[in-house]
Structure formats: C-alpha cells, structure tokens
Amino acid sequence: MKDKKVVFMGTPDFSVPVLEMLIEKTNVILVVTKEDAKSGRGEKIRFSPIKEVALKHNIEVFQPHKIREEYNYILEKNPDIIITCAYGQIIPKELLFTPPYKAVNVHASLLPKLRGGAPLHRCLIDGYKETGVTIMYMAEGMDDGDIITNAKIDINDDDNVGIIHDKLSILGRDLLENTLEDIFSGNVKRIKQDESKVTFAKIIKKEEEHLDFNKTAQEVHNKIRGLYPFPVSYVILNGEILKICESKVGKEINKGIVGEITNLYKDSFGVKCKDKEILITRVKPAGKKEMSSKDYINGKGKEKLLGEILC
Fold it and tell me: Of 130, 157, 299, which is closest to residue 222 (Cα–Cα)?
C-alpha cells in the first residue's frame, strides 16, 4: 500500500494512532488539521496533536481556516484517497468524491447510532451498553455515508470518557489497517445506514456540565463518567464550583432532600438523587488539585459537609 497517496485529515489525540499507522503502511503526502490555537496566560501557540506527528515525520501540514473555501490545494495533490478521523470541520463534496478511492472516515460509534461530534461522551451519558468504531465512506450529510465495516466493545460501569477514548482510538487504528487492502482492491460491500435507527451525539454544551440530582442516581453517574476527564461535571457548594470526577451508584435512601449530602462514608459522600444516593468518590475543588473524597472530607470537616445542599 506504500504506492497509495493518502491525504489525512484529523486534529485531536484520538486521531494520532490512525495517522501513525497510515504513515507506516501508506504514502501520506499531506496532513490537514485545524489552525494552531493559543493557550495559557501567555497565549502560547499550541499545535494540534496531529500536526505534531506530521512535523515529526516531515510531512507537509495544511491548516485551512475554512476547508469549504480552501479545498483546491488538497485536490492539487492528486491523492488516491482522503482519510479523516475527528477533523472538526464539514468537508466539501469535492473532496469526498474526486479521489479514485473517495473519502473514508473513522467514526467513534456504531453507526447509525451516535452520529455527530461527541460520540465518546454521549455513549456514556445516554447509558449505552456497547459502542465501537465504524469505517465508512463519507457523504454530504453528517456521518450518513455507507458503512464499510465496524467493530464493537462493551461499556463497563466504571468506564469513563477517557477510557473509552483510548480503547476506541486503538480499535479505530486496527480496524482501518485491516480494512485498507479491501478498500484499495474494491473488495468491500457498501452497507446503507438504517435511518430508522439513527441517534445523534451533539457536542457538549457548557450548561450540560452542571449536574442535576433530580435525575436518577444512574443517570447522574452516567453524566459524571461521560464528562471525565474532559470537560468534567460540576455542582455549586456554598457559592463555589466543585467539580465531580468519579462516582458510584448507591442504595435507596428515604431521608433528606434532592441534592443534600446525606451520608459520609470512608471513601465517599452520598448525595440524594431522585431514587437513590450517588456516592461521590473523587472531586476537584475550585483552585485546588483533584483529590479523593476521603481527603476532601478530611480537609473540609465532617460537620461542615453533612446536610449541605449541592445545587
């Protein structure tokens, strides 16, 4: 496959294993990624993880502001195929259909479920029992192209978005590697997506990071793990933000009101939800490092926490 000219389009850490595999197995002639970002107090320029990999391997990097207006440069490279993985912009149809082997996407869900930009988070928040990766031909709609192949994993109750991210990143790399020869030989069966089974994975909005204890304990737990370690859910305690990092579903409880810290345990504190307690096991107080709930309780004092309301 070293004779195949590949343009790769991606941006975050999730895409890195896919690009590294393509560099090893094919001829990656161009990497397309988002523009450099500024971060920190000094507003230092920060490259995307994909740009870092490309520069390491002396591969040309292209960073269009608007890909829909700046795609001709990519076509001038005459790629055999365009492969995308979490690029971050809608790709124009000229790029999808011009290369001989078209454009192929590595998507982090079992399509047609969880189309959109946040499938890693939504599979947990929405209580899915399994997820996976789909290799698909790209089409003009959002993640609605024909499926080439997919692979699945079970979701464990203690999985969080960081764990799912790492599992699916490697799964996507391996699945694409095992599928490339068939794509180039034309030995693939295009499977139309069943539109009646479509669900969506909308990008997480800032207001969604706030926890609502009027939900069931399982729903609250799903949101906590579905937002950790990025962007991390939070509550307000005595006017200050308290980020909630890890939790467990507790037992049914009859005392207290929704949102109240009803019990203090050896390794957690219990908060009353709609049906049960949610046991908070790890937190990050405002201006401090992440810590175990045991250390948080010891630092605050038991008498100052029991009976407090998280809102």
Answer: 157
Burial 273-311 (b: 16+ CB within 10 A, else e): beebbbbbbbbbbeeeebbebbebbeeeeeeeeeeebbe
Report d(CA 192, CA 198) in Å as an integer.
12
Is residue 161 within 8 A of residue 78, CB to CB? The reply is: no
For the stretch 170-194, pLDDT in tens is 999 999 999 999 999 999 999 999 9
Could you tell me which of 138, 177, 179 has the C-alpha nearest to residue 18?
Answer: 177
- Quote the CA–CA distance of 2 and 25 in Å, as a whole number: 6
User: How far is it, in rounded angstroms, from Cα 220 to Cα 274?
Assistant: 10
CB 46 within 8 A of CB 68: no
By residue count, the chain amounts to: 311
Contact 45, 201 (CB under 8 A): no
Task: With a cut of 90, say whether residue 259 has pLDDT above it.
Answer: yes
Cβ density class 135-158: b for 16+ within 10 Å, e for less: bbbbbeeebbbbbbbbbeeebeee
pLDDT of 38 higher than 90 = no
Q: What residue has token string 């949102």? A: 259
**Total-model pTM:** 0.95
List the strands of the sheet with 81-85, edge to edge. Answer: 61-62, 27-32, 5-10, 81-85, 103-107, 130-137, 147-154
Each residue's pLDDT tens digit, 42-100: 678 999 999 999 999 999 999 999 999 999 999 999 999 999 999 999 999 999 999 99
Q: Which helix (H) or strand (E) holds 190?
A: none
Distances (CA, A) of 148 to 5, 135, 186, 189, 198: 20, 6, 11, 6, 17
Instruction: Yes or no: say if 32 and 7 are a contact pair by the CB < 8 Å rule.
Output: yes
Which residues share a beta bridge with 6?
A: 28, 81
d(CA 272, CA 215): 10
